[in-house]
């Protein structure tokens, strides 16, 4: 199997690691989606009109992009008809929103791996860039499932739920009851990749540990991390500052306490293309690049 998970697997470059810095990448998604659900839903015709005008397209221009007539676009926006399935897929790509959103959000989407309520900003992607409405970007990216062990996912999710004020025992019991009912875990034998993803993670872990970075504890786990939540800006010897990640890409990483003690932590990020190791203070303050190594 050739991995093409951009950031994790491609040569171009969720639940996540156990860290106070990284915990905010998922915090409030449960609460925010619940709040958004209280807002009066737009109808399909209103959604289509709103998205077209926000993109600055005329009806003729949109019609050309999705291979229909201007009259068809007009009928959608008047509420006379709705786009067919193939056209909805084209519109989803064009507007970068889910088909569920295009239809006025009649369903509350939930990640079928971790159970997190979903909104367009955190939906997963297929290899061709198409939105997958069944999973969050931490559990599935570029056609690859990132969790093969339910207990690992529960451990990661419990830390995030505890950070939001939920008791650990309550969170753990809830997840143990909920996760087995989700489609991914029900169909795990059918959907799993036979251990290839876990083998790739172990290869990265071995390479990181073989670097013997002073003060960095032995890395035992890597979790899916979305670039926008961990894309720190590092000072360079030239005096300039630089970021090394892509915001929309999912990487593998973790946070570990320094063996030297103190209030700084190590951050580890890796993908098919490189390994990055850094340190930072609380909430990612004062980051320093320790190592950037191409693979």
Mean pLDDT: 87
| Order of strands across the main sheet | 5-8-9-10-11
H/E series, N to C? HHHHHHEEEEHHHHHEHEEEEEE
Helix content: 25-40%
Tally the beta strands: 11
Helix- and strand-based class?
alpha+beta
Uncertain stretches of 5 or more adjacent residues: 1-40
Describe the structure concisely.
The chain is of the alpha+beta class. It is 34% helix and 17% strand.
Can you give keywords for this protein?
434 Repressor (Amino-terminal Domain); 12 helices; 295 residues; alpha+beta; two-stranded antiparallel sheet; disordered N terminus; globular; five-stranded antiparallel β-sheet
Report on the architecture of this protein.
The protein is built from 12 helices and 11 strands. The chain starts with 28 loop residues before the first helix and ends with a strand. 33% of the residues are buried. The protein is an alpha+beta fold. The strands form 4 sheets. A 5-stranded antiparallel β-sheet has the order 5-8-9-10-11. The chain is globular. The chain has helices at 29-36, 44-54, 59-65, 70-78, 85-95, 99-102, 150-163, 168-178, 183-186, 188-191, 196-209, 227-230; strands at 123-125, 131-136, 140-141, 144-145, 223-226, 234-235, 241-242, 250-257, 265-270, 274-280, 288-294. Helix 3 crosses helix 4 (70-78) and helix 7 packs across helix 8. Residues 1-40 have low confidence and may be disordered. Among the domains are: 44-102, lambda repressor-like DNA-binding domains (434 Repressor (Amino-terminal Domain), Orthogonal Bundle), CATH 1.10.260.40; 196-294, no CATH class.
């Amino acid at each position: 199997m050739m991995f093409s998970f951009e950031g994790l697997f491609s040569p171009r470059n969720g639940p996540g690691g156990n860290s106070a810095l990284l915990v905010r990448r998922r915090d409030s998604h449960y609460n925010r989606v619940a709040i958004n659900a209280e807002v009066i839903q737009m109808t399909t015709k209103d959604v289509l009109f709103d998205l077209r005008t926000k993109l600055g397209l005329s009806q003729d221009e949109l019609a050309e992009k999705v291979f229909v007539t201007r009259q068809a676009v007009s009928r959608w926006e008047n509420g006379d008809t709705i786009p067919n399935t193939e056209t909805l897929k084209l519109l989803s790509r064009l507007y970068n929103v889910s088909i569920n959103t295009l239809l006025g959000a009649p369903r509350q989407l939930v990640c079928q791996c971790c159970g997190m309520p979903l909104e367009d900003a955190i939906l997963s992607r297929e290899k061709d860039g198409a939105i997958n409405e069944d999973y969050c970007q931490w559990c599935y990216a570029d056609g690859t499932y990132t969790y093969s062990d339910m207990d690992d996912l529960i451990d990661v999710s419990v830390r995030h739920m505890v950070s939001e004020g939920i008791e650990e025992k309550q969170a753990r019991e809830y997840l143990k009851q909920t996760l087995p009912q989700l489609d991914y875990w029900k169909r795990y034998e059918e959907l799993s990749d036979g251990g290839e993803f876990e083998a790739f993670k172990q290869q990265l872990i071995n390479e990181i540990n073989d670097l013997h970075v002073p003060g960095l504890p032995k890395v035992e786990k890597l979790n899916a991390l979305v670039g926008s939540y961990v894309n720190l800006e590092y000072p360079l010897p030239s005096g300039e500052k630089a970021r090394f990640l892509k915001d929309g890409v999912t990487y593998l990483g973790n946070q570990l306490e320094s063996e030297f003690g103190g209030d700084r932590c190590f951050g580890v990020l890796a993908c098919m293309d490189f390994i990055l190791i850094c340190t930072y203070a609380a909430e990612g303050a004062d980051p320093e690049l320790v190592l950037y190594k191409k693979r």
